[in-house]
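Researcher: Please translate sequence to structure tokens.
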Amino acid sequence: MTEITEVPSPFCGIGTDDLSVQVDGLALKVTANGCAVNTPAFEQAITDTRPRVDGKEVSLDVAAKKAAVLLKDTKLPVIGGCATDVNGMRALLALADRSGAVVDNMNFSAARNNLLALQDSGWMNTTLAEVKNRCDLLLVVGTDLEAFAPRFFERYIWNPDAMFVDDTANRQVIYLGKAPSGTASTSPNGRAAKVLTCNDAELPEVIAVLRALVKGRPLQADSVGGIAVAELQMIADQLKAARYSVVTWAAGALGFRQAELTVQTLSEMIKELNTTTRCSGLPLGGREGDQTANQVCGWTTGYPARTRFSRGYPEYDPYLNDANALIDSGEADALVWVHAFNAKAVPPIDHMPTIVIGRSGMAFAKEPDVFIPVGTPGIDHAGHAYRMDNVVAIRLKKLRDSGLPSTADALNAIENALREMTV
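Model: Translation complete:
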């Protein structure tokens, strides 16, 4: 039994790198600095060690060849999930190029809310280091930040070692839309966050009013979405008075139509605040490899994930290349599902040939044609994954010898078998 310290996590998205993990053979136990997101992800047991074809255990070579046979004559295969590390995503794109597949990250429909705003008018965003060292006012919009990243406040708001904030306990935190589920946003001196709640459907109007107040526009209404305009005026005044405010949101939590317009409204408000003070956005993400998928796809193809290779070159379309839509319409004729982080993230059920490259322990309502259990980056092998602010690739450690192949190993084996069949 050994204990490994300063363990980085690929699960929480915020770059947590101070976990202590006890390793006893294949069993892991988080002994320090765990949270509701990281601890169960690290401690999940290994239950599958060998690939399966039609439910029967086989070697990796046999499974890879079977997968290649299923992909060989397809017209439009789909590679979904895309939850892996940098090397796994590189191998995924190589297989997509070889097979003419559509690549679609499982979280892209949420990320699209951000990308459409970015593509249309741009934004001014910050990094976790800047939040840690400069932020004096945090506005959390439409998101339960404590549930998304339980240690965010501990590491980036109430940290005592900020470079440009004299007393971090005096930082202001405001929740707009959703209330926090815990007490992590309460400051060390006991001051609770200010919370103004409204329904998701009312959030676009609330944000539009807040932007109008920041710009000094006159309003006739007394309330919007159940929130008094006077309360929103106080937030607008605080944003304008802050030295370095940060506005954060999770695109996946904005559960209403055309949420990209609300992201754009926030982004434009941030730009307007920067005419007299400093303000930055902080989109939340990075869990289950979504930032890694978009980063690697971006530098490899020039596009985010949701790109197809069926014409021999990458084509990006955030709507037409939706994997779920292609499966539901019957256009897709095979599915490769890649998810090395979460055993509960199983592929959608369909009658098409299905190949799963996934974390050990996946339980299927319908056994896939091929299942290759793979190691988890940061546990079973070393690797790199991008945290939520996209500026840091976390160096993940190997904690145990499980004997499981990496996602890259499995996908490369399939791609090599497919190449040999088509030569």
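Researcher: Any highlights?
Model: The mean pLDDT is 95.
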